[in-house]
Amino acid sequence: MASIYKTDIIALKKLMVEKEIATISDLSKLSGINRNTLSSVLNGDAQPSAEVMDKLVSTLDIEPEIAGCIFFSLNLRSK
After folding, report:
1. What is the pTM of this model?
2. What's the superkingdom here (predicted)?
3. What is the pLDDT of residues 52-77, one digit of tens each?
């Protein structure tokens, strides 16, 4: 069953650029998230767990309302 939500990976990548985080490896080191997990999330292959979302929000300094839009955008292709 497909999820009704998806992560806005473009918004996450824009935040990485704004914070001058060039690679997934750099984000992994800063956030403490496994590089393979980050790769899956940033490629759109997996939805992040609550723990991963929390670490990304903290590391990228994402405002709560923006975080909600990034991690819980409707997946219009889920049907």
Report:
1. 0.88
2. Bacteria
3. 999 999 999 999 999 999 999 876 66
60 neighbors 14 (Cβ within 8 angstroms): no
Helix (H, G, I), strand (E, B) or coil at 6: strand
What region does 49 belong to: left with phi over 0, alpha with psi -120 to 50, or beta?
Answer: beta
**Angle at alpha carbon of residue 27, lines to 25 and 32, rounded to 5°:** 95
Q: Which domains does the chain have, with CATH numbers?
A: 5-74 (1.10.260.40)
Extract the runs of DSSP E, i.e. beta strands, from the chain.
5-6, 73-74
Ramachandran bin of 73, using left for φ above 0, alpha for ψ from -120 to 50, beta for the remaining angles: beta
